């Protein structure tokens, strides 16, 4: 388990949800994905970010973001030709029957990222929806780290 301390209170009404996601990312996912390891990244502004290597300062695969009240999934690096996040954002929005909240400028600037807002996750009662979210987290991890090996 990562030794980086977290102020969960920054997530306000989503504290319980964020603690559940944090536990999943640091503990439960190890049982579901061979070779998986994750650590909280140090000195992260507006949330908690996770990386495969301990004590990394950037390039994580997921962030629980208090500023956007969202889980931000990073599919690979933010390069000119990486639009995987845009594709995944469309998949997320379609799955949850949502309208995209991100601006076109933001979508283009961070085309490798997909957001799932905490308000959407807070009300999930369907196990299939949670499995969908877990699968996206696994895909972000795999895309960021394992596909490069």
Oligomer: single chain
Structural class comes to: alpha+beta
- Number of DSSP helices? 5
Radius of gyration: 14 Å
Describe the biggest sheet?
Answer: 5 strands, antiparallel
Low-confidence stretches: none
Helicity range: 25-40%
Shape: globular
N-to-C terminal Cα separation, in Å? 24 Å
Beta-strand content: 5-15%
Strand order across the biggest sheet? 1-2-3-4-5
What's the β-strand tally? 5
Helices and strands, in order, run as HEEEEHHEHH
How many structural domains in the coordinates?
A: 1
Mean pLDDT: 88
Tell me what you see in this structure.
- It is a single chain.
- The protein has one domain.
- With 149 residues, the protein is of the alpha+beta class.
- The mean pLDDT is 88.
- The two termini are 24 Å apart.
- It has helices at residues 15-32, 84-95, 104-109, 118-122, 127-144; strands at 39-40, 47-51, 62-65, 70-74, 113-117.
- Strands 1-2-3-4-5 form a 5-stranded antiparallel β-sheet.
Characteristic key phrases:
14% strand, alpha+beta, 149 residues, 5 helices, five-stranded antiparallel β-sheet
